[in-house]
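Protein modeling request. Please complete all fields; requests missing the sequence field cannot be processed.
Requester role: graduate student
Desired output: 3D structure, token encoding
Chains: 1
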Amino acid sequence: MAEVNKSVGNDNAGASAGASAGTEVTNTSVSAGVEAGAEVHAGVENSNQIGDVTISQEAHAEAEVHAEATTEAGWDGRNAYVDAHAEVGASVEVGASNSVSYGGVTNTTEVHAGAEAKAYVGASGQVGMDGAEGHAGAMAGASVGVGASNSTYDENGNGASAGAGVSAGVQVGAEVGGGATMDDGVATIGVEGEVALLVGVDVDLSVSVDTKPAQEAVVDTANTVAKETTKVVDKVAEPVNNAGNAVVGGAKDTGKKLKKAFKF
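Delivered output (264 residues):
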């Protein structure tokens, strides 16, 4: 696994970035992955004393992006499997607060806002003793939110707070999967899916077919064919047998007559 990380700045203002990539190989599987990310942040604080009143302000902002992709293939003793997926995302958040302290009582007002976006795509499958199965999907979404609060507390922690917020998001995408299995003569074929557009809709379908009657029908048909074939053979052989018996009988009569004539 190769990894690189860099950072600059401090808690008040700075940025960092990192990336890694690597592979792993075992007796039954192989995998590879890569990921990268970066973030930046900045913040400021200020405090003023005016007589017996202390006024403090704080503001900050953060942003990050990330991306990753992985693949894996292997054998679990019963099935061969493969999986691959990738994801990217980004988010930002800002906030600010103001506090006023007087006579042991502090009143704080805070506001914040944020946004986030993500996208995902992936697929997986297996085939082997447990049947065949596959899944694939892609999703993308985004959300935003804002909020605010106000609180008042004394030095002993007595007080109250109130806050409100709202958020909204949208998500689009689809995920489908299916498989086929055979268990004790019963074949099952299934399809499942999910479609997301603001709200999610699930669709699932599974059909099982008992193949044992068909197998039994084949056996019965084979037995019937064998019996009828035996009958046909017997009928065909009957005149031949009769002819043979007639020939043998005639030969015996002829032999008796010759023996009698020549007095053997």
